[in-house]
Every structure is written in C-alpha cells, then in structure tokens.
Recover the amino acids of this structure.
C-alpha cells in the first residue's frame, strides 16, 4: 500500500496497524553541544530500533521524530519481517 498523505509518524502508525504489530515507541535523546542542546530521536518498531539521521535544535523536536519515523516506514514497507527475532539483523538506521 502507498502511504502518500500525512506525516511520517501517521504513516508509521498506519503501517503498524495494517501489519497488526505493536504501535511504534519513540524516544528523544539530547546531547549538550557548547552552549546549546541538540536533539535526536529513535523509534522502535517490531523489536528494531531506528534512529533519526540528523540532530535538531530543541524547537524542532517533532522534526527529530519525523526523521526517525521516515527511516522506520521505509524499512517496514520495504521488508516483510516474519518475526522480531529474525528481523533483528543488527541494522541500525
């Protein structure tokens, strides 16, 4: 199925519902960089953690979640994991 509308987080929720797997679990992480704090996100889907590709300013926390959700959607829709154990190939996005 094509996921053309909505946010990446919405697309990820829909993909999980269609596959009847647990809803995605997001985690925000920060790193102090000089006088500022950078933020990123990771999302766990089907037992696999997918990390955002970039770090973001604190006012853009949703962008960090969208980044991680995009990585997870692309993984989930390009593969057909048979079980969490067999899909944990050590892939870290």
């Amino acid at each position: 199925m094509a996921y053309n509308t909505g946010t990446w987080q919405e697309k990820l929720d829909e993909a999980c519902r269609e596959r009847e797997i647990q809803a995605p679990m997001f985690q925000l992480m920060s790193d102090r960089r000089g006088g500022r704090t950078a933020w990123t996100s990771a999302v766990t889907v089907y037992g696999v953690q997918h990390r955002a590709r970039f770090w973001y300013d604190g006012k853009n926390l949703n962008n960090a979640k969208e980044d991680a959700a995009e990585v997870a959607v692309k993984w989930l829709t390009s593969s057909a994991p048979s079980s969490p154990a067999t899909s944990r190939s050590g892939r870290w996005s």
Remarks:
- The longest helix spans residues 61-78.
